[in-house]
Predict the structure.
Amino acid sequence: MDVETAKTVNESMTSNIKFIYTSASDTEIQKNVRTDMKRALVNDIRMGIPPKRQSSKMRDDTLHEYEQSYGPKYNSSITTTKQGKHFYNTLPNQLILLRNHPMKSTADRHHYEVEPSIEGAIFVLAKYIYTSIDKSSAFYDEGRLNMAKNLGEAYPDLKPFSEPNEWFDVLKRLSMVNRSYYSMIKDIRRLRDFDFTPLRQPRLNYEHQAEIDKDHVDMATSLLIWSNLDPGIAVRYISGEYTAEYRDPEEIRRYIHGKVSRRDEEDMYRILTEGVPYKLDWTEPRTNKLTQISIGNQKSVSSNSKIVDKTINKEHKYSNILSCCGWVVYFSPFCRHNSQGMNLKKGKARLVWDASTIPPDAPWLTVMNQIADRSNMPEVTYGEVQRLFMLDILNWRATYPNEDIIIPAGVDLTSAFRWSKVNPNLTGALGFKIKDLYHLATGMVFGHIESAASFEPVRRSIEIMSIEEFYSTKDLESTHSEYLEMLDWSVLDNVPKPSELRKSVRCSVVTGIPSVNRNGIMVPYQTRPRIFVDDALAASIRTYIKRFLASIIEAIFNIMGKPEPKLRRNHMSMEKWIEAIINYQNVLLGLHWNTRKLTVAIPSDYLDELRTLLRNSGLPYYRKTFTVPEVSKIIGKLGRIGQAVNWAYHLMSQLYASVAYALTKNKKILASNSSEFKTLLKVVEGKLPFEVLGIDSDITSSNAIRYAESKLAKMPHSLKQQYPIITSMKKELQVMMELLEDPTVQWESPIAHLVNRDPTAVGWTDACISQAGGFNIIMRYIWHVEFPMEIKTRTIKYISAGPDLININVLEFVGIIINFAAALTSIAEDGLPTDDPFPILLNYADNMSSVKWIRLCTSSPIGRCLALFLCFLLIDSPLGINAKYLPGDENFIADAISRLKQEKGLPNLTELPFISAESRATFDALDDYLIEEYTNSISSKDIETTRSRQAFYIQFTKLKKLEDPCGEGPIWDRILGHYVKELQLGINIQNKDNMRYDTILGYVKAALELFRLRHLTYPFNFDNKSSLAATILNNIKEEETIATQRAPLTSEMYAEMLKVSSKSEFLSLEQAISDLSILGRYLGPRLAEYGQKAQKRPEYHTYPSGTKVLKAWSQNDFLFHDKSGKRVFPEKLEDIDTLAKMSVTFKVQKNRRNGEVKEVLPDPTNTEMCPVRAAYKIVHRSMMLNQPADLPVCVYKNAKSEMTYITGSTVSSYFRQIAKKAHPSMDESERKRFSAHSLRVTAAVLLHEHGCDGDYIKIQLRWQGDSYRVYLRSTQTILKRHTAALSKSAALSIALANIEENISYTTTQVSEEAMGEYHDIQ
């Protein structure tokens, strides 16, 4: 049902209800009924068992109290009941049930309800009517009868309910509202005495359940009617398999204690005792809930009806859902509908819980994953499993070169995500409706943002405990012989020939299997099983494989639960276990692994799928156009292949580029022709209010903006606009098809080429616009090539831009390819340079783009063609290749080789090729004259200074064992770089620790003059950003400039910030910057460590390897502990008083001490200025704004109630506003000296004011050199200390002046001539 239809139905329903309630509106009814209905519900819960006839009251009361106190944990009554006694007498008191049940809930973390609604009120009134009409009913209670009458008398809107003779007419009219009302009223009457106690009995024939039993549905519905549609009470009443009552949380905790990480232990215990998700606290608007119900499910559900029924039945028989009548979701204030989808893949059906999709006709809708709390989810690490498994295989082979490595397939966990039980209070929040049934989600759903995370502690615990069990003294093979005997072990008799086993060479990464001491015997350390979601990847040798599998089984059963097939499904998939293959080769994670060949390959059926897809599309053959959706599907398939076959990525370079081009064009087409796209774009840009999307102004704007952004992103991808297949794309598709149809092409790679091992050989390459060169010492080759004139004339020297330009990135990439080809030639002629059968070449280059293109090139047409050429070199290549970036000054040998035929020297006047011989002589004479004039013009002092500095430079080169202080080539830039750094660190003529930039520049210019006088090329250009020396000089200049310009924050400014923040809300910018400033005066952070350049985009640091690391702090960088050393998670602000210390990690630093950790203690005296409290609030604020733990932590809520990053400009602007308030007389130029860098200046100045020495300041504020000195200021505190230090001397002078004795002093004056020339200290 679409939203418009839903609105019509809802309006019709409301009009019918209004007919019953004459003049009442929905809002009025909600307002009038809310208080009394809540009281009625509470009374109903408290009653538990309604009073029966009062005969033998004392006896019944005594037995009743006993039953309530001790009965909840039993499946049936624990007192003798009379024959024919109604089941209702055996039911527990609901409050006692909630209090005593082992599955606990907390009000702030396990709370979901819908705002008070007319549906909930009508359900309770209907229930009261039917439990008051028939006095023979076990539900009969005169108190309820009076409650209904009283409500009718108290409110005119509910007048019909005051007259019992009108009730039937009222109920008849209500049943005409819609089908849900009809079903609800009918079922309350039909099921009012329906015995639901059998739900607590074990379901012994669950495996044979072919469909959901109607009686089971009726019992569940009757139970929910009794519990006032509160699933928290209903699920707790049934317990059993629905809450995993069989698990012993304390026993499991003891089992894993001290073995797994403390965090995983805590998470495991929480999941066992509270369920999942970790936190949900939401009161959902009624409109939101009804709209979600109206939308229904995805088309995949309605179009696969039989498969859906089968899948739902499977979930029901394994107690992952509790099914009841569909009307429950409409009337229960504790239930909602979450859209479902059906994922069909390779004959396997999976129900997908869709809590992320926002429908196009309801952009304001809030879906569950939007309000899910990410703050304390367990860390998800299963993405590392495949890489670790590869290393396990290589390590086993390195230690056991003549043994088979067994990798069994079929060790799978059943319903891994469902293992974590949903907190009973939230089973309705995660529930869903399909057809006529509503299903409470009792097992964790597949699709919630916490689905994978909730199983991570379980997965990791099984991995670790498997090894603990492996080395235990238990006879595990006997214990689990029943399972082990199901497998075929014949492969163990097939001993491999030595020639069948490929070698694995040890390195710093592949270290082999270590030995461990077990009971005085050294035995090999068994590697862990690597569990990827629910697939256990195991590797071991034939001697240990049986015990290893038995230890995995033991760990699974001890953690997930021992098998009781009569009661529940085995947590180990028996279907897959029975078919498990024990072999040295197997298909795992969709890839074919062979431990004898040490390879991983793409299975043939997957290649067939891609082959069929290409054939059916016609793209490699007759098609002249393509669409984005169809090419995107091909790219997805190739991406999967690329995980095992790296060269496959080069087969889609042009596909990537073509799709990127098409997406850009699609956006332009939509922007020109689609009114919807234009409107969405303007809403996102803030040019139009979100109400233009047809959204109620009461809806949160962030939901609307989020929907608009999502829709904008998806529309270009779904547009089926046709685009021409260009020649290079057609060629790529044809090559792809040829390779797929060529039976000789092996779609496999050595495992050793897919992990980051130490290289077998290292090569260096470099290129300029005319030549390229490279070398490899281990493989003993050197090469040089001069590019032909057709290439040279298309370089930047001749063409500034355009499609014909061949840029330096392409030429550098050519160098890398030639270097790889040279290595292959070396192997062909001289054999492998090592006994490693899978050698890897590491190629260093000083061009970032060419290094990235080794994996995939999309940005350059010529680069893409070259990548295809590289692809052919890599197919079946015995040599793997990796590439890393190397700064140009360190790549000097390859640089020199690439310029072997270039003219040496710089464009000195005497060497310019376009000047004639006569002109050169003229210029030489003029040049000499100019130098002579310059020399005569400067003072003798300047000349002596220059000479002294030149001598100092010459001494520097002698100390470095250089034969000549001057020379040619880029190496001299590096030498000058070292010289500059030593000058900065205090190695200079005057031994000054803090030398100014201008002075250092003078030293450098004096050294460069030596090069000029010998007509040598200057080692570097001051404007060259790639120059090491120029970069260091520029850094010194910038640091000095920033420190000079920026002022420290004053105490008056801090006081003003405290005043302003105290009047602001916690999530505001004012409080965010106040907390940051308090923390900053202790840590002195650089801007990049806390702020961003843009309010919506985080900044990353990219290492030469291409790895990206977030520059700024994230939640993960802060750790808080209490006095006992226990970690405190910043979830509750009230926990701030328990803090005893804090540590913060600096991931990326200018001084290169990356990962440095600083500890900070709280200030118990000045709590408002406490850095630990400030940091805690910063992290807590980030959590409240649902910021992921691995993204910047310094955030606030802007005027649009959106989460926003703190930026440098925001901080600078705010500081200047505060300065204006704190110092009204301060002029604007002074206020501009306050900026985001003032925090670092403030921290340095405060330490200096309190007498801390330089080493202390450097350590605490993370400086490597002495550049901190330029941050220090003559503040008022320093000036007062200075005055106080000289006061005694001043007093003595005054005292001496006042002595009334006639003392004469002799004064001797030195003549100006005798004094000589004065030189101030530099």
